[in-house]
Amino acid sequence: MCDEDINPWLPADPAVSRRTFGLGAAAAVGLTAAEARAQSSAQSSAEAKVVEKDVTVKTADGVSDAALFHPAGKGPWPAVLVWPDIGGLRPVFRQMGRRLAAQGYVVLVPNPFYRSAKATETQGLSFGTPEGRKALFGYREALIAGENPFEDARAYIAFLDAQPQTDRKKMAGVQGYCMGGPLAFQTAGAVPARIGAVASFHGGGLTTKDAASPHLLVPKTKAAYLVAVARNDDARDPESKEILKKTFAEAGRPATVEVYDGDHGWTVRGSQVYAEAEAERAWAALTQLYKSALK
């Protein structure tokens, strides 16, 4: 849950090329070596055609730096907002943005900590040091205070909708990692008429006893949900997944809540607990969610 005794991320290993990563990912989901090479080649080719640019987004509190991705061409394509984990906007999340855009989406990955620092500054912080943790937790507190998550979500979705490549006739998606899980739920609560799919990967604090608990927003939304739970988070709070299942059922929201065979941070390449096979299985579930819900 992104607390002090878990290091959810480390810098990506520069010795692992994107091609090697693609081969390993394909193999991890049970393909033969030849199939894995073909899939990796196709993925690399699609990502090479993705348009990537740094952008700024005007918010109620200032200006957020962010990265925007979309396929080459006019489109239009459905929009997706990606909330990073506590490590913020950094190369591994840019790679996720490219990969997702290559599948046919207009993707925005913001610097969630823009109130406190630019993404270029947060990348230099190490969660593995007391100083780095203190700074990052301070940035997170500034982000989650009061109405900030809802105001930011509205600004980011409005920015996506203003892009000429965005298909505004189709619902948008939102996904979040670690602290981004609750932010994904809050995004659906902030703009329920626009969000058709919500995905949380090892999200912390989805169900709390607070009156503002993210799960209480579910009945107000129109989205389908994917909640991928880390096994050690589930061990700490096994009741949370049951609360979520009950909430989705009572609200009549289609949802999948599953505990994966990976620890907190397992979906993020470069994390010390990155589990490639389970990460790819989670990505496949995300792909299916968006295909079925973003209509």
From TrEMBL:
Keyword ATP-binding set for record: no
Alphabetized PROSITE patterns for the sequence: TAT
GO molecular function: hydrolase activity
Boundaries of every Dienelactone hydrolase domain copy: 65-292
Keywords from the UniProt entry: Hydrolase
Superkingdom of source: Bacteria
InterPro entries per UniProt: AB_hydrolase_fold, Dienelactn_hydro, Dienelactone_hydrolase-like, TAT_signal
Protein name as catalogued: Dienelactone hydrolase family protein
